Amino acid sequence: MSAAARGGETYCGDPGAPGLRGPACARSAKAYTAHMRPRLPAPSRLLQAYGLSVSFWLITAVLVSSQVYRERLQEQLPAVYSDLLLLYAVRYLTVALLTPALFYGVMRWPLTGVSLRRIGLYVLGYPAFCLAFAVVRWLLLPPWMHETLSWGPRSFNTLLRLGYDTFADLFLLYLGILSAAHAYAYFARSKQQEVEGLEMRQSLVQSELQALRAQLHPHFLFNTLQGISTLIDTDPAVAKNLLFSLADLLRTVIKYKSADLVPFSDELSFLRAYLELEQIRFGRRLEVQWQVPADTESVLSPQLLLQPLVENALVHGIAPARQGGWLRIEAELRGERLRVVVSNSVAGTSEPGFGLGIPNVRQRLKYLYGDDAHLSFELDQRRAVARAALDVPAFAVAPGFAAPRVATSAAGA
After folding, report:
1. Tell me: the pLDDT tens digits for 102-127?
2. Which of 55, 66, 342, 345 is least surrounded, with the fewest CB atoms within 10 Å of its CB?
3. CA 266 → CA 22, 66, 125, 297, distances in Å?
């Protein structure tokens, strides 16, 4: 466990803290030990634990007293149900008051594997449990005298007798409580490990997504700057306007930070701003066609998902053609799915490129949606048309969702 995973605390042996030695290391080890130990339950959880314990054992008392009453009647022995009910109620109420303490002990010192120290601890815990039972039982009500079928006096001798008489009877109860506590401890630990595993996998997926975005940003920046560099000598004014437009786009990317899903309207706004920048570079060689209904803008889509597809179309489809080409962006809602198609013309001698854009998009879709999203790419050499089709779940934008808007530059004016 890293220091970051422990809330920023640094302990002895952490790679980032090689200077912890001697007293500092001892203090750090104590802090780590205290951090790993289970803490006392909160008052609300403590009350809940005692409530469940008392409820369970009082129901047990009613069942046992009813069974004993019927057995005594069948054997034609004297029996008063109210006395039997009170006797077993106070007996199991005493057990109920001790049960949460046993559960806490098991949660803190569970019996894992063959540990002689833990086994010895539980063996020595039985006399302590019997002593605590005798004291609590004696304090709640005087001992029941079977000879006279009445409640006896509360004295030190009756306390000793109570402890002696119940020492063997409590053994099965003690084992039963320990078994139930261990079963609960293993169940709680397995659930905790399952939650931690899910959180770890979620963190891993988030890290992978951030790595993919970090991979995409310099790729987008490099290609754009490379295009601007070709205009610095031939048309410095246009190159300057392109740099201003690029600065607006980069500010938008920074504002989004690590958001995975953004409103599709914002994704389209970013894409329009990017195409405005490219339109300055391509001039009349680039024709952009939009077929995006208004109802598609109210759903969520992955951030920077369309830009790599459009960039792939510009670099590998339109840029190699001297006469330029066309780019079409279509979107539609099909039930609870959003379908986006990016198609473009290609030069007759163009080769399909699978550099970074399309593989990056496919990986991000896999991490975000699993098998519930699809990206297909096809190249029709006969018609000289490339087509990338994207199909993702259409999640609605939550009410009050506010994402940063894309700032568009007037560079092309």
Report:
1. 998 888 888 877 778 888 888 999 99
2. 55
3. 56, 71, 65, 8
For residue 133 the two structure tokens come to 């039972």
401: which 2 tokens?
């969702």
Same domain (yes/no): 179, 277: no
Q: Give this prediction's pTM.
A: 0.48
Residue type for position 183: A
Residue 412 has pLDDT above 70, yes or no: no
Number of domains in the chain: 2
Q: Which residues contact 222 (CB under 8 A, 6 or more apart)?
A: none
Among the listed residues 97, 110, 93, the one whose alpha carbon sits nearest the alpha carbon of residue 178:
110
Both 163 and 307 in a single domain?
Answer: no
By mean pLDDT, which of 15-24, 214-223, 333-342, 353-362 is the weakest?
15-24
Residues 163 and 226 in one domain: no
The answer on 185 and 211 residing in a single domain is: no
Identify the CATH number of the domain in which residue 231 sits.
3.30.565.10
Contacts 24+ apart (CB under 8 A), 171-178: 171/126, 173/95, 174/102, 174/126, 174/129, 174/130, 177/95, 177/99, 177/102, 177/103, 178/102, 178/106, 178/122
Helices 43-74 and 81-108, packing angle to 10 deg: 140
The SS3 of residue 358 is helix
Same domain as 228, residue 153 = no
Query: Are 245 and 182 part of one and the same domain?
Result: no
Q: Decide: residue 285, CB within 10 A, 0-12 exposed, 13-18 middle, 19+ buried.
A: middle
Residues 88 and 137 reside in one and the same domain: yes
